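Lab notes, practical 5.
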Amino acid sequence: MIRTPRPDERRRVTRRRPSLGACTLAVTGAALLLGLVVAPEAAVQGQPQRLMYLHVPSAWTAFLCFGAVALCSIAQLLRRPGSWGEIAQAAAEVGVVTTGLTLAEGSLWAHASWGVWWAWDPRLVSTAVLFVSYVAYLALRALPSAVVPARAAAWVGLGSAFEIVIVHFSVIWWRTLHQGPTLLQPSLSPPPIASMMLVALLVALVASTLGAIWYVRARVAVLVVDQATPQAARQLVMERSR
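Output from the prediction step:
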């Protein structure tokens, strides 16, 4: 039986471990300082290159979250006990938002570098397909289980993860306007950027990862209460508020 939790139950469940949120804010502030002030200006692209400190972390977070969806979907299909569906939904929500940001930031960067807002480039098109796939996944998750069983949504979440591989290797498999990988190069050679740029980028990646973990944990707590019976919900609220 699904029931709507009271507002006080939602607030008490999400009011937990504020240290992670504080740590996320601190690292995000450091990332902004490093990316906007400390890191040197790119010799060729100039100031527009600073979009990298937003664009790459957004893409990384999307990949990370969609990978989590795939793992949780496997656990669902294997009928493992746990809140795998709720974790997958929360991770997919973050992944969809960060993929949308990746496309928007990439469009700004493309206009500054290529003079166009959009190009039918393999990297751009495959990223757009990835975005639509997980929007569809969330739409399936939103439907009642009597209409779309949870296992059906899990299959979509698992199958869509293969698109991550296509997006990442699209700049290697096909001729593309998009630059090749900066960090995860097939040759495992050192990143071809200045050391301070690399530091700023790595800190931004940590900030985006912490932010995703913070949101997923808080969102899962709410989703679990939403799905619980009144007695179970009260027990969860008591445990979370200790």
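Observations recorded by the TA: The chain has a mean pLDDT of 81. Residues 20-36+49-181+193-240 form one domain.
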